TrEMBL record:
This is LPXTG-motif cell wall anchor domain-containing protein. It comes from the Bacteria. The chain crosses the membrane at residues 140-162. It comes from Microbacterium aurugineum. Keywords: Membrane, Transmembrane, Transmembrane helix.
Amino acid sequence: MSDMVGVPSELVWVPPVVTVENIKPGDPQVRTLTLTNSNDVPVELSSELMQSGDLFGGDTPLDVSFSLSEEGRCSDNPEAIPAQGTVTVTMVAELPITAGNEYQGQSGVANYIVTATEADVCVLSSPPANPPDALPPTGVAVGGTLLLALACLPVGAALRFGRRRRRERRGS
């Protein structure tokens, strides 16, 4: 009889190809895309950047980065996405403003290999609009009810005052 050992599941996400053309020094090229964690557990992303080509050499190479939006990610772990959560991924390619003419006509390829593993903890950075365990709103809003009650007070006072006057007239 063998013992079964649990192995955490691992997912690999290959981001779509982003082509950067005619990049100019100091002029970043930005691309955004949406990433959804369709798992029932939060996942933490780790990445490895693989790059090749002349744009990544020299004294002022091309800089390529990606980041997750604050909205929708785990606040206690900026690299984690909650279960069923969706974030915006921003990818930026920028040639430093100090880059010289030696980069004209050059090319390069950058690949991010992103691995998602189950996150230990995850606190949402912003709570969902309608948490799944929240009760749905019912009845009339309290503000409307309060206004109606305040409007009825003078009417009730006038009716009571009128009834009292009628009793006094009958009694006299």
